[in-house]
Structures are given as structure tokens and as C-alpha cells.
Amino acid sequence: MTETLDVVDEKDEVIATASRKECHEKKIRHRGVQVFILNEEGDFFIQKRSPKKDIFPGLYEGGITGHVLSGETYKQAAVRELKEELGINIHENDLREMFSFKILFENEHELITAYLLDYDGQIKIDQDEVVSGQFLSLDELKQKIKDNEKEFTPAFLIGFDKYMEVKDIV
């Protein structure tokens, strides 16, 4: 299945559409989402990406990340990705928007909106997307990042730094 994404300008206005593959091959700016999942104890859910993924295979990321398909809102994409990757069914209103940021890496040029989800329900990992997942305390996660930052996706590291700046106000 070919994913069609909205191509956006620096103000996040849609200016065209392109395939996911074309966006990555040509570093065309498109939209993405990131959802940090925290349980009742305030622990973070992190997942290890499948080695089959074409972008950052086998690396850790927090919660979920994904592309916003053409015509979707950021929240709609977040809800869809949570269901696809982790089997989590939620309503858009369950998500709290935290911040937005830009990334430009080897084959990613995205405007990302990050959300927070408080969640204590069941997680059913899609093995095609995710190898494993676990909840870690904030201190455990910070230590894991400190011990080997290269095991995490760059987008997660940027998002996590921004989360640490706003965590007391979201």
C-alpha cells in the first residue's frame, strides 16, 4: 500500500501531496506525530522498532511515532498509529497536545506534533512494527539514554528533551 502524505511549507500549510517514498528520497517536508505514553505511576512506555522498518530500524523510541496521511489531522494520525502499532483504542480527546518541532535527518524532513497520553490499559504490540515494549520510570529512561543515546531515534531524543522542558505544565 502506497502512503500518500501532505507536503507542507514552513508554516505547516499543505502545498501538495507526495508518496511516503518520494518524501523520504527527496527530503520533502511532511507531517508526523509523536505520542508519549505514561502510566498511572508516571512511567514512560518505550518501544524497540522492528528491524524491518526503513527508517531507524531496531532503535528505541517513546510511545509511538508515525506519519500524518494526506487529509488527516495530527490527532487522527496519532489515534490511528496507536491502534496500528500498540492496539490502543482511544478517542482524540484522550490526547493532550504538548508541542511541535521540526526534524531534518538523513531521509526525514518532518513537522511533528507531540502528544501525551495517560494510559494504563492493555498494549498489544504489532510485531511488524515493534519488536518489544516496556514501561520505564523517568530516572530509568534518563539512565538508558545516558548509557547509550545511539540506541534511540533522533526524533525521540529531541521530543524527550522538549518534554522535559514542559512536563510540569502539561
How do you describe this structure in short?
The protein is α+β, with helices and mostly antiparallel strands and 170 residues long. The protein has helices spanning 20-25, 74-86, 138-147, 154-166, and strands at 4-8, 14-19, 30-38, 44-49, 60-62, 64-67, 96-104, 109-118, 130-136.
> Which CATH architecture of the domain at 4-40 and 62-128 and 155-166 would you pick?
Alpha-Beta Complex
Helical run tally: 4
Order of helices and strands: EEHEEEEHEEEHH
In oligomeric terms, what are we looking at? single chain
Secondary-structure-derived class: alpha+beta
Q: Write out the strand line-up for the largest beta sheet, numbering strands in chain order.
A: 6-3-8-7
Q: Given this structure, which CATH class of the domain at 4-40 and 62-128 and 155-166 is correct?
A: Alpha Beta
CATH overall fold name of the domain at 4-40 and 62-128 and 155-166: Nucleoside Triphosphate Pyrophosphohydrolase
Task: Give me the Rg, rounded.
Answer: 15 Å
Measured between the Cα atoms of the first and last residue, the distance is 36 Å
Give a quick account of the main beta sheet: strands, pairing sense, barrel closure: 4 strands, mixed
Residues in helix, %: 10-25%
Mean pLDDT level: 95
- How many beta strands in the DSSP annotation? 9
By CATH, the superfamily of the domain at 4-40 and 62-128 and 155-166 comes out as: Nucleoside Triphosphate Pyrophosphohydrolase
